[in-house]
Amino acid sequence: MSVFDPMSLAEPIVQAPMAGGPSTVQLALAVCEAGGLGFLAAGYRAADAVEEDIRALRSGTARSFGVNLFVPSAAPADPDRLRPYLAELAPEAERQGVSLGAPHFDDDAWERKLELVCRERVPVVSFTFGLPGRAAIEQVHAAGAAVWVTVTHSDEAVRAERAGADALVVQGTEAGGHRGGFIDDEDAAGSGLLALLRVVARHVSLPLIATGGIADGAGVAAVLCAGAAAAQIGTALMLAPEAGTNEAQRALLAQPVPTRITRAFTGRSARGMVNRFLREHTDNAPVAYPEIHHVTSGLRAAARKRGDADAFNLWAGQAHQLVAEKPAGEIVQEMGATARQVAAEVARRLAATD
């Protein structure tokens, strides 16, 4: 059985699976119906809820779609590294009027979700935060699904190809949200997208899905010229009515707010718009995912409920000022049309130099 080919998309655009709010069934449906590849984010959600999402999406479209899974961390964080940061966050809990969550380790229901996507025969299963084991890859392939792996370095790309991945999501440092690489270390910020694409293309022969700072059609054209089979967009869709973006963040997305990579909110490197919480806690935040995610979940939920954009994570890519408040389908189709226009103009300019 052949697996999904990203080159078959009517529009060379993939929706980023933005776990924790922005991704919705309605957003994935709109992207699919516009000719792109919609994605459901399984991260942070119960397996039963993901199953409901899959079935709801299938009831609205016959087109292919994907589901993204988080690969579990290899081991719990060292408690001694957690304690100073928990003490630092205690005043935040008092300010928000909630308690800090317990810093527990879990695998985000990995086995149940893996079994689910295989049983439901999801066309594309993408993996973030690591390389799944060969048995998991074979399990997904046996269900007829394509395996996509998120990479941030060329060595990760080589390992993923050898393990049996069908395509790679190549994530540049410009991308909003969590860094999707295998290891969260001092190099987690990674390289710029265009440089990374060219380096990865030198080392592997798999289709590449480019992601990071792509927010208009010219950006799509740029990554296609650099060797990508498709562009993955996330922040560009966050003002769409179908997105579940918090209203406090919606009000800031088009503003010239700088972004920065931080571990302050979850214990794993992620790019977000700079706010008070990020400024005050980035320097001391340890590498401790998912423990810190659980510690701060109540703080972030309380801040979202109050609309306090200074106290929860505002994940966004570096080009967030380019976002448009339009239906997701229009965004996808306009970006595709502009990419074709830009590519045609570049071809004309190059032909003129012959």
CATH superfamily: Aldolase class I
Radius of gyration: 20 Å
CATH topology: TIM Barrel
By DSSP (H or I, 4+ residues per run), the number of helices equals 12
CATH architecture: Alpha-Beta Barrel
Helix content: 25-40%
Order of strands, main sheet, comes to: 1-9-8-6-5-4-3-2
Task: Assign the CATH class.
Answer: Alpha Beta
Topology pattern, helix = H, strand = E: EHEHEHHEHEHEEHEHEHEEHHH
Secondary structure elements and their pairing?
Layout: E1 13-15, H1 25-33, E2 38-41, H2 47-60, E3 65-70, H3 79-96, H4 110-119, E4 124-128, H5 134-142, E5 146-151, H6 154-163, E6 167-171, E7 177-178, H7 193-203, E8 208-211, H8 217-225, E9 230-233, H9 247-250, E10 259-262, E11 270-273, H10 276-281, H11 291-306, H12 328-352
Parallel strand pairs: 1-9, 2-3, 3-4, 4-5, 5-6, 6-8, 8-9
Antiparallel strand pairs: 7-11, 10-11
Structure description:
With about 350 residues, the protein is α/β, with parallel strands linked by helices. Helix content is about 40%, strand content about 15%. It is built from twelve helices and eleven strands. It has helices spanning about 25-35, 45-60, 80-95, 110-120, 135-140, 155-165, 195-205, 215-225, 245-250, 275-280, 290-305, 330-350, and strands at about 15, 40, 65-70, 125-130, 145-150, 165-170, 175-180, 210, 230-235, 260, 270-275. Helix 6 links the parallel strand 5 (about 145-150) and strand 6. Helix 3 packs parallel to helix 11 (about 290-305) and helix 8 (about 215-225) crosses helix 12 (about 330-350). The protein is globular. The mean pLDDT is about 95.
